[in-house]
Amino acid sequence: MLKDYTTYAHDNGGRVAILFLLFLLAIYQFINAGYNAFAIICLTPLIIPIVYAAFRWQMLTFWVLMFVNYFIQFKNIPPLPIPVSLPNELLEIVLLAIVVIDVRQYPHFERIGNLMLFSILGWCAFCTIEALNDTCNLGIDIGGWYAGARMMAFQLLYAFLVYSLYLTTPERLMKYLKIWALLSLFSFFWTYKQQHLGFTSAENVWMETRGRATHIVNGITRYFSTFSDAANYGCNAAAAAVTFLVIAITSKITKDRLFFGIIGLLVIWGMMASGTRTAMFCLIVGFSVFLLLSKSFKIIIPFSIVGGLLLSLIIFTDIGQGNAQIRRMRSAFNKEDASANVREINQATIKKYIADAPWGLGLSASYDNVPANNKYKKLSTIPPDSEYVFIWVHTGPVGITTFVILTVIMFLGACWIVFTKLKSRSLIGVGAGLCGSFAAIQLGGYANQVLMQFPNCLIFYGGLAIVYILPYIEIEWIALEEKRLAEQEEKKRIRREKKLALRV
Q: For 456, what's the count of Cα atoms within 13 Å in the CB-facing half-sphere?
């Protein structure tokens, strides 16, 4: 049956049907976003060559998705007259359409039936039920609901499926990790540029308007690099640094150790420049997850000692107090710091209102569409300052409880795989690093509204999806590692022979 379908899909027009459906979906998204027919007519012809190129160079499409996702909120790129999330979504849908059409090239469907898929589907199902939520008496707004649901739930499903179906070999995985590291390295470079050469005109406009209140604090400038804001950048940098440094610690390949180690340290420097205090805790949590999953006292003991000493220097001493970024990071441990406690005041207010809305305000409700005389108007205008609080407000106690439970399930499932199913020390490092970065960004989402922001959702939910496929590629990973080790030893031998020849 499957063979007949794949033959038909490959040879008898399956592409046409899928492309037509894809075209209809694109049109629907344009219309749903509220843009007029003229914009649709002008922009939709671009879909044809883009889709053709995607089918012609399939993995290239995946790498393009990575770049688009990473720079989609870079302030120096002129904004498109379309929703910010649309380029990401279209690329993801095209990649999934390719899998459906060319089934024979993607025979790994059995790999996606895991705890993470079922957890995400459970969350998507809950958010679908939220379409019926009319707590604010706004009526059933399918367009508004879809706009909220696609960012809060559906993009998690897209990320999981795309990563699970495309990063299916050790070569692709290593290429992905290196491209991610290089993108993070560019963010470090751009932070350095902002700090020492100044902001561009586009960045200056943002800093003087929307960003001024939150990015110049007590005379300290918080740098945001290529990201939407400093909090987003700092939490991302902390979580990414966990993965890079863990790979540097556990890899057997010298070039990889140097590459990921240097980039990891530079990314931490960028994290400090962001002035995002939560990032410090993200870093601590991420490395703690790695230590627990490493199963090695040779790693746990020395890193615990070094980490403890560094924390002690930050918390109990004034070393580095002359540096503005270090001063701001140190204030994260000051319980009497006023700005650090503003969130608690807002959350206390939210708690009073949300008690009467167990399903939340609904995914279509926002500060600008809840009527002024509605009892939940104040609730819709309180800054959530946190992704978890945002989910709490819009889906209520029922929703946030569901989200937390399903997130814990998918996270523990990944940790279980790393702890019990993997044998290769270097592959355990990759898995532990990705688990650590997922935990780090979740903590970032608890304190800041960054979890569903670009580029975090695709990178870190996709990263956790990678952990679930590691057992399937472990044998190939070991073979590739042995090949690279042999090449490494051969180069060392040649260098030794050249040195001996020079001495003679």
A: 30
